[in-house]
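TASK: fixed-backbone design
INPUT:
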């Protein structure tokens, strides 16, 4: 089992977003989603630094009120398409190196995963260390197998995988079909040296930490946020308080 070395927890939190405006700082059950992510990172107690990357003075104030004033702001162009989280992380690592701070492991925590718990972050870190991979993502099992997808063209349906038609039901799943999961955005862990070389966190071998579906909601649309509000009210114990 390897040691993770110095760890940086990076929380990407731009103010602008296309499908759900200001999604990172929307209030959920009395706290912004950013505040919830900061609190979870702090509860882990293992990070050498927790950093909120933002271009927004408003987001920076929220981070400062939580005890994490950003030592620098990200450029505005890194908060607009086509820039993504990879670009944001590479920028942050370079800025910290310029300040004389270097890290061996980077843990990315999206604010839009408000049902992620401390145990998920710690479990991901433990799995990363035990597996020896340089890249790891939290995942959730696919509820509906994409292997049973149908292609719609010219008003007619055709199976995407004809050879698997009628074999993706509950009785067949797991017998000869692959165990399918998807990244849920809650936790991503990378070895900094390998990440800088690959310029991507989809690099291989890619480890996985599986999370239950009730903690895997990744909010990116108004409907998903409404669903999160419903879940928070119906199951307050699902939130990491």
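OUTPUT:
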């Amino acid at each position: 089992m390897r040691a993770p070395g110095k760890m940086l927890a990076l929380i990407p939190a731009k103010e602008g977003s296309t499908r759900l405006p200001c999604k990172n700082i929307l209030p959920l059950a009395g706290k912004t989603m950013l505040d919830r992510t900061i609190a979870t990172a702090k509860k882990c107690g293992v990070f050498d630094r927790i950093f909120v990357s933002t271009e927004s003075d408003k987001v920076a104030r929220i981070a400062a009120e939580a005890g994490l004033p950003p030592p620098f702001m990200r450029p505005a162009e890194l908060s607009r398409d086509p820039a993504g989280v990879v670009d944001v992380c590479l920028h942050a690592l370079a800025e910290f190196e310029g300040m004389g701070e270097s890290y061996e492991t980077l843990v990315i925590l999206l604010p839009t995963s408000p049902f992620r718990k401390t145990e998920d972050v710690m479990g991901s870190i433990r799995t990363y260390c035990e597996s020896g991979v340089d890249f790891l993502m939290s995942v959730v099992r696919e509820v509906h197998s994409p292997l049973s997808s149908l292609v719609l063209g010219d008003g007619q349906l055709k199976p995407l995988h004809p050879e698997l038609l009628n074999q993706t039901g509950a009785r067949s799943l797991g017998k000869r079909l692959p165990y399918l999961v998807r990244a849920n955005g809650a936790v991503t862990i990378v070895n900094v040296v390998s990440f800088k070389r690959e310029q991507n966190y989809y690099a291989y071998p890619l480890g996985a930490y599986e999370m239950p579906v009730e903690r895997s909601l990744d909010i990116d649309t108004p409907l998903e946020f409404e669903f999160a509000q419903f879940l928070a009210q119906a199951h307050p114990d699902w939130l990491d308080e």
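COMMENT: The chain has two domains: 7-142+181-233, 143-179.
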